[in-house]
Specification:
By secondary structure, the protein is mostly beta strands. The chain is 13% helix and 67% strand.
């Protein structure tokens, strides 16, 4: 809880800095579009959530810190292609449905590999953005007798970026992370065109993060 509050305070300060800087810079000159060809970001965040119902009880991941590396390539003004990699070091817990106490099973590492698109709107020296990605999640534990898993996943996020100069910026975001443990898909075509989709259930997490771009 203390870590969560500390991160929230840091992110609020970063958002306040972004807004204040955007206003200050907007007063000095006419806002211009900020279109960097390549942006590299390193973020630290608080990743929370993540539970799954089993046959005899509920499995869950502890809330923990995570680190994220992001590369955004500008396709055109207002649109970027994004690659995201994140890593969370946590523990897996098990809570029986009937009786028993919650126990720690093992240390775990959760990694997200994601590709997608980011759309942004300029507001002077700052930008607000929305991002959506698809990819996969890997799950590993410190027990050598338990093999890791890789599953299809997707993310959705909102955030803001501010650029004090043409090289260095600040980025804050909140993102939803969904890993599908079981999925089914279908595709149908006819005279009206083609439609398709997938359905599944899985593990839902969220992450609140900020850092440098």
């Amino acid at each position: 809880m203390k870590i969560q509050r500390l991160l929230l305070v840091v992110l609020l300060l970063m958002i306040g800095f972004s807004s204040a800087f955007a206003q200050r810079r907007g007063q000095r000159r006419t806002p211009r579009s900020i279109d960097h060809r390549l942006e590299l970001s390193v973020l630290a965040g608080y990743q929370f959530g993540g539970s799954l119902d089993g046959r005899d009880g509920e499995y869950s991941l502890d809330d923990a810190l995570s680190v994220t590396a992001i590369a955004d390539v500008t396709l055109r003004p207002g649109a970027q292609f994004e690659f995201m990699y994140s890593r969370q070091f946590t523990q897996e817990q098990f809570q029986p449905y009937v009786g028993g106490v919650k126990e720690t099973l093992w240390d775990a590492t959760v990694e997200y590999f994601q590709f997608g698109g980011l759309g942004y709107v300029d507001a002077g020296a700052a930008q607000t953005f929305a991002v959506g990605t698809l990819g996969w999640t890997t799950y590993k534990v410190d027990d050598p007798t338990v093999s890791g898993e890789s599953k299809f996943s997707a993310t959705l996020g909102l955030g803001a970026r501010a650029f004090p100069n043409d090289r260095i910026g600040v980025r804050v975001e909140v993102r939803m992370l969904m890993t599908f443990m079981e999925t089914t898909g279908a595709l149908g075509c006819g005279g009206w065109g083609c439609t398709g989709g997938f359905y599944g259930w899985g593990i839902l997490q969220g992450v609140l993060s900020g850092g440098l771009t």
